[in-house]
Amino acid sequence: MRGAATAGHQCSCCRTLVPVNSFARMFRENTVSSVMPLTVKPANYAKLLEQQEKFDAAFEKEFYIEHTKYVETGVLSERLEEMFDHIRQRPDMFRMEMDDHPLPYLTAECTACRALVTTYLTYRRVLGWDRDRIAQQAASTCQTLNILTPANCEKIVIKNIDILLYIIDNRPSLTAQTMCGIIFQSGTCVLEDPTFLDWTINVSGGGRPITASKTGPNRAADDMKIIHITDVHYDPHYRTGYNAVCGEPCCCREGQGIPADPANGAGEWGDYRDCDSPWKAVEDAVRAAARQHPDAAYVYYTGDIIDHGVWETTVAGNIVSMTRTYQLFRDVFPGKQVFPVLGNHENNPTNVFAPSYIDRQDFSASWLYDFSADQWTGWLPAATQQTVRQGGYYTALVRPGFRIIGMNNNDAYTFNWWILYDPAYLRAQLQWLHDTLLQAEAAGEKVHILAHIPIGAGTSYRTWARQYRRILDRFWDVITAHFHGHTHADEFNVFYSLSNPQHAISVGFNGGGTVPFSNYNPNYVVYYVNQQNYQVSDFESWYFSLTEANQNPARNPIWMQLYSFNRDFQLSNVSPASLDTLVRRFASNPAELRRYWEFKVKRGDPFLAAGCNGDCLLNHLCQIVTNEANDDSKCNALAAIFRNLDDELFSEDDTDY
């Protein structure tokens, strides 16, 4: 087993590596408020990575030794406390999607993963620890690392321990390096196991050759409108005035009490500070979208109804929240088709979507698929029932020539533990997607793809993303747009051909989210879609200021247009070719890129107060063009342009993020 150590052998190199480790130094020299995302790797990254690999290998060995002593004696040594401090969670880690974690955070998280997984694998496989002992010790580690409160650490461990032990016990060759490589896909958490790297799907020949970036139509008077709502994150435990600065991943909740300082209390319509949405805010957002756009033809909902209180979700509670939310959509959009997909929070435990052949009731997601099939029956054709009940995905012919595919790509989310058990089980849905697109192509249909997790994002399992890109290369002329959620950011992604990377072939539009978690204003998006080829020609975002709404709690929020994309960026259309040109414009025009960033964060007051300096802007730019974890080719090309600008964007003293 990688990194295993035997008691009695001291790893002296760790003591010298910790103080001089470059990533660790970066980690400690930045305060939480000033740390910026570092998607763009520094010029000396390869050298830093080599140093970090030596550091992590030594760290995980010594951590096992020190932790074993602690378990045996009950005495927490000064050295172990120092090591815990190095990997301890920072308060803002939970409010950022993993893609936005700065390099020092990702490095510390990878170090922690390797050390902890190596230690607990040894306890289970070598020392024969039973379930209860591992659960008790894991809860203690969770508490020590400030992940949750002691009581909630116990809850989150109990929710996940049986699944993890089942996987570990039935996959004896699974190593810490592989487990952490799947979860983080960065730094020294590199995936090396061919079992997880080499699986493929069958992609048919044919299709139109990719000879140029894909163009599209300009907006026309007869374009149809589609409303995109996502990530409502309804919290039934939200209480106005309750603690919004609770120190947990999700605040403003009934059990967290009323703070002594009223300024730390939850707002009437939601709160910027790590809080989900009260029901009145969920209802207001959906009704505002319907009221403002009664002429919309369809509604897309791209997942995440359930709150972020992941330590205490239940099947029964999730069913209540989802039932209430789906009923709201039925009431507000009567007679209108709503096309929903599942979010990673819908299952219990959160993020975990087992293969269909796992028949243990406490592991299976079949309850969620059956529930969804029943709830969606009024919106979707009867023919969708089989695949929804099988895996939470479907296809529907909306009108002649126009098809929607609703994916459940939560199975490819890197925090889905079942990838560790059998990565190839992800093939089934991808092969179904390919075969469905093949049939659509033969029928002359164009396709919109809905998926909760942005395809190709850093938390999208890299091998899965690579296989998806093969499908997209084959059916780029059939797939006319992608629609995502999950990040809560109002953003877009440009997909480039895997075989001809100079050509932009598709776009992923993100609906942002009606939840403010964290620091965002609520929003929804409206698309204008050409009725001949079903490409998006333009889109606009609608939002309200959470600050203003909470200052006027007695009346409903005032919804305003945040932007109209073609107008605000002087575009003729939002085709892949047009947005590829815009991205290159961003690289040479920081003012335009900053404007995009303001729209992306939906002018959330905390974001605007903190600002976004050159490195921050460059990272947001790179996120647009990254189609696969660790594929930096497009990012590097844009960075070369951006960093040559003669301005003060990259001032060493700038503490924006």
TrEMBL record:
Cross-referenced InterPro entries: ASM_C, ASMase/PPN1_MPP, Calcineurin-like_PHP, Metallo-depent_PP-like, SaposinB_dom, Sphingomy_PDE
Broad class of where this protein is predominantly found: secreted
Compartment(s) where it occurs, according to its Swiss-Prot or TrEMBL record: Secreted
Keyword Endoplasmic reticulum: no
Residues at which Zn(2+) 2 binds: D304, N344, H452, H486
Domain of life: Eukaryota
Gene Ontology CC, one term: extracellular space
Matching CDD domains: MPP_ASMase (cd00842)
Saposin B-type domain mapped to chain residues: 106-193
Keywords: Disulfide bond, Glycoprotein, Glycosidase, Hydrolase, Metal-binding, Secreted, Signal, Zinc
Cofactor note: Binds 2 Zn(2+) ions per subunit.
Cofactor dependence: Zn(2+)
Top-level class of the enzyme under EC nomenclature: hydrolase
Reactions it catalyzes: a sphingomyelin + H2O = phosphocholine + an N-acylsphing-4-enine + H(+)
Signal peptide region: none
UniProt similarity note: Belongs to the acid sphingomyelinase family.
Name of the protein described by the UniProt record: Sphingomyelin phosphodiesterase
Gene source species: Anopheles darlingi (Mosquito)
Lineage: Eukaryota, Metazoa, Ecdysozoa, Arthropoda, Hexapoda
